[in-house]
Design a protein that fits this description.
The chain is of the alpha+beta class and 1088 residues long. 30% of the residues lie in helices and 21% in strands. Strands 7, 8, 9, 10, 11, 12 and 13 form a seven-stranded mixed sheet that branches. GO terms for molecular function: metal ion binding; voltage-gated calcium channel activity. This is Calcium voltage-gated channel auxiliary subunit alpha2delta 3.
Length: 1088
Amino acid sequence: MCSRVWSVCLLLVWICLGTRVVGVVGSHQGSIPLSVVKLWASAFGGEIKSISAKYSGSQLLQKKYKEFERAVRVEEIDGLRLVKKLAENMEEMFHKKSEAMKRLVEAAEEAHLQHEDDPDLQYEYFNAVLINEVDEEGNSMELGGDFLLQPNDHFNNLSVNLSLSVVQVPTNMYNKDSAIVNGVYWSEALNKVFVDNFERDPSLIWQYFGSAKGFFRQYPGIKWRPDEHGVIAFDCRNRKWYIQAATSPKDVVILVDVSGSMKGLRLTIARQTVSSILDTLGDDDFFNVIAYNDEVHYVEPCLNGTLVQADVTNKDHFRMNLDKLLAKGIGMLDVGLTEAFEVLNDFNQTGRGSVCSQAIMLVTDGAVDTYDSVFAKYNWPDRKVRIFPYLIGRESAFADNLKWMACANKGYFTQISTLADVQENVMEYLHVLSRPKVIAQEHDTVWTEAYIDSTLPQAQKLEDGQGPILMTTVAMPVFSTKNETRNRGILLGVVGTDVPVSELLKTIPKYKLGIHGYAFAITNNGYILTHPDLRPLYEESKKRRKPNYSSVDLSEVEWEDKDDTLRNAMVNRKTGTFSMEVKKTVDKGKRVLVLHNDYYYTDIKGTPFSLGVALSRGHGKYLFRGNVTVEEGLHDLEHPDVQLADEWTYCDTDEHPEHRYLSQIEAIKLYLSGREAHLKCDKELIQEVLFDAVVTAPLEAYWTSLVLNKSENSDKGVEIAYLGTRTGLSRINLFVVPDQLTNQDFLTAEDKEGVFNADHFPLWYKRAAEQVPGTFVYSLPFNTGKDNNSVVLASTAIQLLDERKSPIAAAVGIQMKLEFFQRKFWTASRQCAALDGRCSISCDNENINCYLIDNNGFILVAEDYSLTGMFFGEAEGAVMNKLLLMGSFKRVTLYDYQAICRIFAESSDGSRALLDVRLMMILCIFLLLLFSFMLEFNLYSWWYSDLTAKAQRGDRTMLVPCDTEYPAFVSERTIKETTGNIDCEGCIKSFVIQQIPSSNLFMVVVDNKCDCSDASPMRSLTAAAHNESLKCERLKFQKDRRRPDSCHPFHPEVTKPNHITTTSQPNLLPPLPPRGNQTQPYHNHITT
């Protein structure tokens, strides 16, 4: 029934999309004189440009740059040379982090070598949770004590101890366990190395050692606090950096018993076991989950017979499907094993997986046979597939069979009796997989993808303050080097250090990349490490991570590259170039800039990363070098109205503690004085910022004179004048006192798009650069669109030369009150050329509507004030459609592969929510109305902001990752004026559109005598299509990836510890368990 209703709904939507507006041009003479509208547009354009030029000082600044024209040298940017240099800089930084980890590895292995385990060892250490805690009597807690903590700006003002580390023990472990106490004791030797590393490289942040026993030693020492339930969920052994360093890439089939005997708690434990196994898989691993009883059932049916990459998105998808598992029938393990072996064999032959280790994780409550015939057929004698049985439940009647399977197939057996046992027991298989690497003493350096680890105390504090911090981790394994345990391959743990992505951005000289240029880096899997278009959070204000934020592919942000040419070349670590036209969204995704980018890329040696640089053609491919004396430049740089980009690195003030309190301007002064040899600065950037300071200095006196002239700006319509230069230098002048500013966030850190950031120029700068030289771009900030206290921004670019290859030297602009701006418009629209002063038409007439729209179709002025900031198609749909048909505006189709959509959530009882027929019909009608009105218009503010980005509302919906397709609109520059008529059921509606001179604005005058509201504005075209990212086709599809360089699946010296794991002789099998066990009844395993 539901499917039939949806079919009818889709049919009605299709019919709705087929309706169209009929436009008529020609025979009917419009009632709106073009000459009058042209007069209005000219009058308003001249007035508003005069105001903008006067208060911004644009003509003065253009003149000053012209005076230096002969003293500057214009250079074309060599993109390939630039990207190679940037890669070398990053390689050097990464190498320093790796060397620090090597010193930790050497110290840890030596300390363990000298230590003899003592089961009775008593040792008081600083427990991260118990430090500075007291009991009811005021005495220090055991394993606590006084631990000096002081705020440190390098660690984001968190209170830390730079002399000592602390030890965290998972809540489910005993912090005085002998193995933990011994490990903590010998690892105290790392304190000295932590401190030494930090002194050698002051840019280091957190260093740590994650022990295979479960404890976590962290430097600098910091206080950890449990959650509201008194629990600390952090276990270092299931972190990506630990698993990636400890093991090699692997292909895994998780085989889950869903026979009748697994009902109740056993199935609950089994689900949790599978989920914990998924936690141990990373981006270089591949997996599938297969359930079995008397036949096999793929947990995700569309992945029948294959494996999928273990990224966050795919693992979460499988977790959601685990609830579908139901226990019934007979357990035919031979059927499940056969399917698992065939899947692994077939997938391995494709060459698309890890092509390294292979394993079957068997989650069951027993096995009535050893199934040696299955192993003989598929796995012996080579035993390339390891078997890891997890016996669920307290009974051990068939444990011997499962133990035999593990021993006969180089695996490991473990029993899980309760939910509390799951995590610790699942971890055991990692020790087995790590043994070949340990015995070979291969200390592979691994780097993780970009991630946010919010379980750590510093991450929680940062999340409260400034939002989650993206980082990558470099990690190395630590091995036991004792001779007596060498052939057992004992992993002691993993050392690591975090590298914030912001540190990578500091190595990138933004001034060399141009206004629209940027650098980006990806992993060997094609996932983004850093890119200006990566959006890891739901909303800026919510600070919540998207579920798939760490596995966003480069092709999802550089989506114009349909063939993945750029992505695949970078994944394969090639060096080269690539070009394509791109559509870059700005202003919260509501505007689009169509650019032609040239890409340059190369690999970052010693890491799995590749680096790319994008330069836009035209002014983006050129830079210039000026020259002034240091004395001149410093004098003008120290003016109080001068600011430098906070996130640009003029001087590296983080490297040495004594420099961390310096502002960038203070650091530049110190550097130029020559008194500080240890201060590293960008000499080229400093020279250019001194030049810009000198050239722009006259504007300070100019703006001051305007402020002092009381006859100027008497109504306080113009509030701010501002400028920015290609070197990140800004000057700001207020024409009103700060408290009287209408938009107080503009040009502050709160206005992220309006200031220079590490990866982009200000929005007003970027938009001005794409306008015709000498024209101003006007816009209404969307965050204040319908507020009576709104403002209008006007900015223009300053070119160095009067030619196409000229770089953009700077941009200047003003902020004015919207009310002031609109008043100028209405005054101009009342003018007429009649000698008697009697105008044939006026915007005051009831029969016409007058609008002022920008080049993206957004309304700045309308008689109905509530329309301010809205898309013109919402107010005049038929007219907007006609403008599209006539070519005055063109549609640009955009895609967002990082969108978030709201869907109906499951009901509170945990069962799958199904829409009843009535609700489906209501939704169908709603879709009809929505689609018929929205699809031709850019109602992006409704669809994108409200339906995809807002936090979850109510009990019936939830947010999920999705892909969206939506339109944006851009005016055609060559069309200055247009008249048109629309046939609205026999009534002819006329309109005139006229460009405002020297601007990005258009005056639109519409005859409102005809009601065209019933006419569909749609001729055809695309919907804002919400397609869930986890469709079957997308799950199956695998893009090119590069496997890690190292692989250690086996080692000939591996021995058989504790009779549980494998024998060193490949053809020697353990004796079969007594056959008597096979005939014993096993609860419901056989009979149900």
